[in-house]
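Before surveying the methods themselves, we first show a specimen of the format, giving the amino acid sequence and backbone structure tokens:

:::
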Amino acid sequence: METVISRTTRVGKIKYTNAWPVFHSFNPELLQHSVELVSEVPALLNRRMLEGSLEVSAMSSFAYAQGSDHFMLLPDLSVSADGAVQSILLFSREPLEKAVNGTIALTNTSATSVNLLKILVEKYLKGKPEYFTSEPDLTEMLQRADAGLLIGDHAIKASWENNGYYVTDLGQLWKEWTGHSMTFAVWAVRREAALSNPEAISEIVHAFHSSKERSLKRLTPLIDHAVREIGGSEHYWHGYFSNLCYDFGMRQQQGLELYFKYAYELGLLKHEIKLQIWSDNTLTRVKE
């Protein structure tokens, strides 16, 4: 029998529903290695990964890029959409072509979507708005701004309300412009943890893959949980989970690389990003 490793690996869990399939059947108590699960919004998980107080986490794609020298991506895990994502939404008082030259309130809960919006507005739509960061409260946002960006469960709940706002899905807008998929979140490991505790990382990765596969084969438990906790209908949640992609194949990688390229060109990232993916035996460099 394999010896249990006492060293604890701290693993970050995104609270938002879009990551539920990867975490739903992930049970640290069933692992041979010691794992502590930390559940937070993306911004806090990103910060903890960057400062080193988590070893493994789901991360906003942009935060991964900011600290890419310290991280490796875990294989075949992401939250991506090849078109509409349904939970990254810009709400505006006027049509999009007018709103992009006004004032836009940005959610303070994730960097990926904020910077995707800036790329779309400035490179695609040629807008020149003023931005400010806000708590994710749409009513308060639109008291001060012409448009407000919400993500995750805040965006989903706001989309159910008949508030008369124009609603733009950033995943759909990205697909219309680039033809590519968009990856909003990735799973990453800090390099020192991957090198010093590879057996634990391997077990965690395989447990994530197993959870993802079981969840997507049988969505009913996730759908029921979402209806109880957030509201909405079974039909809505079945469509929502079925629409998202949790893999990280070549199509998702290409879309993410393009996003990073545009972010670098706008000065949102300080250097160009080359994706690096962890594996059991070696560090795999994408497209090398």
About this structure: The first helix runs from residue 20 to 23.
